[in-house]
Amino acid sequence: MIPFSSSLLDILFLLSVAVIWMMIVYQLILTLMGFFYRRLSLKEEEQLRKHVIDLPGISVLIPMRNEELVIEGTLSSVLSLDYPSEKLEVIVINDGSTDRTEDIVRRIADRDSRVKVLSLPVTQVGRGKSRALNEGLKMASHGFIAVYDADNNPEPLCLKHLIRQLLADSKLAAVIGKFRTKNKYRNWLTRFVSIETLAFQWIVQAGRYKTFKIAILPGTNFIIRRSVLEECGGWDEKAITEDSELSVRIYQKGYRIKFVPYATTWEQEPEQLRVWVRQRTRWVRGNFYVMRKFLRQSLGFKNKIVAMELQYLFLLYYLFLVAIVLSHVFFLLSAVGIIALQVPGPYFAVWAMAFALFFLEVSLSISYERDARLSDLVYIALMYFTYCQAWIYVVFRALILDYVKKEGSVWDKTERFGEVPVLKQRERG
Fold this sequence. Notes:
single chain; Spore Coat Polysaccharide Biosynthesis Protein SpsA, Chain A; about 55% helix; about 10% strand; globular
């Protein structure tokens, strides 16, 4: 059989390569800037420790739904934070739990007056994390609001690190910490997730903040000024990823969000592939919502960097995805002799360079952590061919649910797998 060839195939191939390398170069820039930001943050942490400040009151919101496996450990960590007891209140919002979650929390609340339980009425349950947080906000009595997911174990100094940064700069609306995987060594999937989340935070969050003074709220481990939150109208109850949606509105108001990498919390990650797929699909659909809501508006944003980041998100989920799929298809069809590309070039060298950059960037990112192991390098190499490719399926699944089946959003919380010991790094100071 004579392989099929045409100039259209050549053009599509070249365009896909160009798009992929545009994203690779951008990622390389962020990696380098993230490296410099880490060095800066280490010095910054030491300087802030020397300043004695009057710590303000903080209301910690913990939304929960069927969290009996983890909520006791979370409350134990939050109540053990190195923060004045009289200035800390913990509001646990129970959104229709059908297990022992509420009983566990109420038992703890009976022992510690800082814990308050808010059970949503039956007619209002299941409307999502944003609704739970908005209801919790009404009950909060302090001017600073912290948010933790129900599976989190913040390190003792975490809240102090965050509030010190927030008080040091009046232009900051919020400060976000770092999250780590406490069940990292449970199986191959949790190893991959741990590497992915560290790389995202040290490359994208740190690199973006160093380069553009931009960071995006995560779903947990952050403090926000109540005044700014109320100015923004609270959390959008239609948003699946309420954190990224709120981030855009914060920047629209002229405020900033800062990444504080030494304020660490530990969280549980999916241990089964089906749970991971559901969680990541929900995240992608949430980002689709943010793009639909703001992408057209972004052309008129005063903050052009935020506008650029929204357009980058569009490129990542649409154009980059198409380029990756086309690249894979061209490779496979060429390998079996169905098509023949007429464009000459050192394509194996180009692919090898892309893999090498991925490996080096991610390896550099995880090397910042004291619990990094040499075996992580093997997982980084493997995830390029497996875990990263699974994201293609996740994005297509999200596209089908959003634009074909047009399914609505519900509180599709991540399934827990029982408590695990936290592999903490030794805190300094």
